[in-house]
């Protein structure tokens, strides 16, 4: 059986305020075409279909169109809800959709009830484990504690119990949305540490032929049978080095897995550049990033004038600006009171100027202005004191 494993579509999400709907539509076009060209038997979507619980209408329309096109191909699709999705909303109409071959698994209580598909070698059981919030599902699943490993372990116990009651040697696949130990996170995943330690061991999936994971946005192989597809698009600059793809997974008669990556279309490459502003504007080696979405980190010791506008002239798609000045003189570890002791108001003011400008001290004209301002304050204090 040939499976296409994808996840973390995050329909409706933007990238630094740039809409990604066009890029997400291009990915779904690519997905449908891949299913057709590669003669895929079933599509697996391991959660975070939407970016938020109440998605914008345009995202819902994209999802609806994708489902109609997959159903039109006659290819079954199994989907689970992720931590970004509203399981209740996503699951509406699941009974009707099932008749069209779209299997939405959003109810934790149904973890042990598989979607049964068949190929020339017999049936395959596909179990959908939606994102399991420990505090909400602990009692329902009979988990000993409200932790991620506990509730996912309890759900997998139901999977293994169901498999044990089926014909010996039946092939099996699990879809799950979780942070599995050994996976590499990125900046764009929502933290799921509420409810105990976030990560769960890969061994929790022992007993099934393949675990199709969602949640982490980098495509990665934890074991030959436990993999993340990653998100089809980059959703943070921490993913600049990611190769965005889906998995084509072939499951043979014995349940042996063979997996191949299929690259996703890239709407625009990502680039992270770093250095003083003038070098970023003049360095010919950076010409290859002029058509990229750019995150620029400026290391100037003082903030340049209008850096975003100046960068935008060379890099028209610059989206993010970070200031990280090169370290100036080593700072004292003494307390604030200790650092002030014995110093004049003038010295304290000049130190403050150097501090806010990352080590660049006041020049002679600025010192004169500070001296004049301090003298005026002292004069005012003297006048008020005499008046009292």
From TrEMBL:
Gene name as annotated: sbcD
Xref: NCBIfam families: sbcd
Recorded protein name is: Nuclease SbcCD subunit D
Asked whether the keyword Transmembrane is assigned, the reply is no
Similarity comment: family membership: Belongs to the SbcD family.
Subunit structure, briefly?
Answer: Heterodimer of SbcC and SbcD.
Q: Where is the Nuclease SbcCD subunit D C-terminal domain?
A: 267-355
Recite the UniProt keywords alphabetically.
Answer: DNA recombination, DNA replication, Endonuclease, Exonuclease, Hydrolase, Nuclease
According to the entry, every stretch annotated as the Calcineurin-like phosphoesterase domain falls at 1-218
PANTHER family given in the database record: COMPONENT OF ATP-DEPENDENT DSDNA EXONUCLEASE (PTHR30337), NUCLEASE SBCCD SUBUNIT D (PTHR30337:SF0)
What does this gene product do? SbcCD cleaves DNA hairpin structures. These structures can inhibit DNA replication and are intermediates in certain DNA recombination reactions. The complex acts as a 3'->5' double strand exonuclease that can open hairpins. It also has a 5' single-strand endonuclease activity.
Extract the GO molecular function terms from the UniProt entry. exonuclease activity
The record ties this protein, via InterPro entries, to: Calcineurin-like_PHP, DNA_Repair-Maintenance_Comp, Metallo-depent_PP-like, Mre11_N, SbcD, SbcD_C
């Amino acid at each position: 059986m040939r499976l296409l494993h994808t996840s973390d579509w995050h329909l409706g999400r933007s990238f630094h305020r740039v809409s990604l709907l066009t890029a997400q539509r291009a990915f779904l076009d690519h997905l449908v075409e891949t299913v057709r060209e590669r003669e895929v038997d079933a599509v697996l979507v391991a959660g975070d279909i939407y970016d938020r619980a109440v998605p914008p209408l345009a995202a819902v329309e994209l999802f609806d169109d994708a489902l109609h096109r997959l159903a039109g191909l006659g290819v079954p699709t199994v989907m689970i809800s992720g931590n970004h999705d509203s399981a209740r909303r996503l699951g509406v109409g699941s009974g009707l959709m099932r008749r069209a071959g779209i299997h939405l698994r959003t109810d934790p209580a149904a973890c042990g009830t598989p979607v049964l598909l068949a190929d020339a070698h017999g049936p395959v059981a596909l179990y959908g484990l939606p994102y399991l919030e420990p505090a909400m599902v602990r009692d329902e699943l009979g988990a000993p504690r409200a932790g991620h490993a506990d509730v996912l372990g309890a759900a997998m116990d139901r999977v293994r119990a169901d498999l044990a009651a089926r014909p010996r040697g039946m092939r099996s696949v699990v879809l799950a949305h979780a942070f599995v130990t050994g996976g590499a996170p990125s900046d764009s995943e929502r933290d799921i540490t509420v409810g105990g330690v976030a990560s769960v061991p890969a061994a929790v999936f022992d007993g099934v032929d393949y675990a199709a994971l969602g949640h982490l946005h980098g495509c990665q192989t934890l074991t030959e049978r436990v993999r993340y597809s990653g998100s089809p698009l980059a959703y943070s600059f921490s993913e600049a080095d990611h190769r965005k793809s889906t998995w084509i997974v072939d499951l043979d008669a014995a349940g042996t897995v063979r997996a191949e990556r299929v690259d996703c279309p890239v709407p625009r490459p990502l680039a992270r550049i770093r250095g003083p502003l003038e070098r970023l504007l003049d360095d010919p080696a950076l010409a290859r990033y002029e058509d990229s979405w750019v995150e620029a980190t400026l290391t100037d010791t003082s903030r340049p004038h209008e850096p975003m506008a100046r960068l935008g002239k060379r890099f028209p798609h610059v989206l993010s600006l970070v200031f990280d000045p090169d370290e100036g003189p080593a700072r004292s570890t003494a307390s604030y009171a200790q650092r002030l002791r014995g110093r004049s108001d003038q010295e304290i003011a000049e130190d403050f100027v150097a501090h806010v400008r990352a080590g660049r001290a006041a020049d002679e004209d600025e010192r004169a202005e500070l001296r004049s301002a301090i003298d005026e304050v002292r004069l005012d204090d003297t006048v008020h004191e005499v008046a009292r």
